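subagent[fold] <- orchestrator: predict structure for attached chain, return C-alpha cells only, no commentary.
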Amino acid sequence: MKTENFTHLIRAITGRAFSVSACVDWRNTAFAGETLEHEKTYFVGMVLPITGMTVGFAWKTPKADEKMLRSFITAFTSKYREPDPATYVSYEGVNRWEAMTPEKREYAHMHHAMHMLSKDALLNQVQARFSCAEIETALNQWGFYETEYGIGIFCFWETQFVRNAIGKMRTYLSGLNVATREEYSDARWVYRFRIEANREIHTSLLKQFCQP
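subagent[fold] -> orchestrator:
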C-alpha cells in the first residue's frame, strides 16, 4: 500500500489534514516510507495551525492491504480526540464554545474525554463522506491499489459514488481488452478485479488509470 496514496485517501474520508509518520516512540517525527508495512505502528496526526500542537493517534497496520482502510477507520474512531462543540452548551461566558478564541478551541483538544467527539460521531462523519460526490474523485485517484491478483478498491459503505468508481475501472480495463474476474473479498470490504498477470503489469495498469 503506497503511503502517499493512503494518506490522500484518509484525508478525503476524514476531512482532516492527517499525515502518517513512523512511530518508534512518540518523539519520532520521521515520515513513513514509500509503502506502509504490515503489522507496524505508525503515528497518524496533524499540526494545528494556531498553537502548533500536534494531535493524533497511534495506528498499527493489519496483516494485509485489504484490511488497511477498515483498520484505520477503527483506530480513528476509537483513538482520535477532537472537541465536540455540543458538549459546551451548558457553559457560560468565555467557556461556551461560541465565545472561545480560535486558540482556546485548539487547546480544547486537551480537555476531558467527556468533551470529545464520540466514536459513533466520528464514524458517522466518515460514513457521510462516502455519500458525497467528492468521494468518487478521491477513490478514482487514491482508492485503488495494485495487488498480486490484480487491482482492489475499498468498498464498504457501497454508495452510488463507490459503485461509480468501480464502474470506471471496469470500463477502463474493458477498453484495454484486459480480461478480469470481479468479486468481493470474503468480508466485502474490498472489490477485486482479478487480472492474474503479474504485479508489474497490475501496477502499470493502475498508473495509467490514475493519470489525469
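orchestrator: received. Logging for downstream: The chain has two domains: 3-82+117-129, 134-210. Residues 3-82+117-129 form one domain.
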